[in-house]
Amino acid sequence: MSKHSPVIHKNTPNNHHETKHEIKCASQQVIVTRTDLEGNLIYYNPTFLEINAFSNKETLIRKPHNIVRHPDMPKSIFHIIWTIIERGHPIQAIVKNKTQDNHYYWSVMNWKVQFDNNNNIISYVAYAKQAPEYVIKAIEPLYGMMLQIEKEHGMESALEYLHSFLNEENLTYSQYLKKLTKHREIRCLCDFVKHKILRQELKD
Q1: What digits encode the pLDDT tens for the residues 104-137?
Q2: Distance (Å, rounded) from C-alpha 26 to C-alpha 146?
Q3: What average pLDDT does range 39-44 have in this prediction?
Q4: What's the whole-model pTM score?
Q5: What is the DSSP letter of 132?
Q6: Are 105 and 5 in contact (CB under 8 A)?
Q7: What digits encode the pLDDT tens for the residues 171-188?
Q8: What is the pLDDT of residue 6?
Q9: Which candidate, 95, 83, 91, places its Cα nearest to that of 189?
Q10: Is the pLDDT of residue 194 over 70?
Q11: Side-chain half-sphere exposure of 150, counting CA atoms within 13 A
Q12: How far apart are CA 179 and CA 135, in angstroms?
């Protein structure tokens, strides 16, 4: 185990999925990945392999990034992320991932869009660091409710719930994430969450 290896806390997750314990990443650890326009990995740093318990000999190039997606994550959150980055905008979100040995970890993820000389999108780069405990405690109930709504009524209803939640807080999702993370510079899961385009795309 390296000096900055993640620490495994034997906490029982508050869900019905068979993930074991929560991993707390060291503050110095940053997971970096780059994906193509379809969400397939075209680069990942050694920290990505270490945290997610992949072998150094294992090649993940061209495999989907969602191989680390945790089933507790609402699909509607990723719908929002893709809606924004496909329009060339950066985004931030709180994400729960599952490792290959069935542990889990929470991270603050930031996506940036890469362009070619003709201003065409060519890839997406994501940077992830350990999410603070107070952020996890705030976001987990929201995600849990959205996931339940998705299962019972579909993704559009989950987005409507998020929209109502933000209205009650009198915040956009961007403002809500900034409030949680105390970060005032990074644009988060965006003001577009309240925009008609999300509902229009779901109906197409």
Answers
A1: 999 999 999 999 999 999 999 999 999 999 999 9
A2: 29
A3: 96
A4: 0.79
A5: P
A6: no
A7: 888 788 888 887 544 444
A8: 54
A9: 91
A10: no
A11: 18
A12: 10
Of residues 150 and 3, more confidently modeled: 150
Q: Which residue matches tokens 């899961």?
A: 189
Tokens of 30: 């940053």
DSSP summary character for residue 69: B
Pick the closest to residue 67 from 93, 37, 16, 33 (CA basis). 33
**Is residue 59's pLDDT more than 70?**
yes
pLDDT given for residue 122 in this prediction = 97
For 16-41, give the DSSP string.
SS----EEE--TT--EEEEE-TTSBE
Which pair of tokens denotes residue 105? 């970890």
* Residue at 148: amino acid letter: Q
Beta-carbon contacts of 193 under 8 Å, excluding residues fewer than 6 positions away, are: 80, 159, 162, 163, 166, 172, 173
120, burial (CB in 10 Å: exposed 0-12, middle 13-18, buried 19+):
exposed
Phi, psi of 34 (to 5 degrees): -135, 135
> In whole angstroms, what separates CA 187 from the centre of its chain?
14
Task: Please report how many Cα atoms fall inside a 13 Å half-sphere around the Cα of residue 59, on the Cβ side.
Answer: 3
Four-residue CA torsion sign, 167, 151, 77, 127: positive
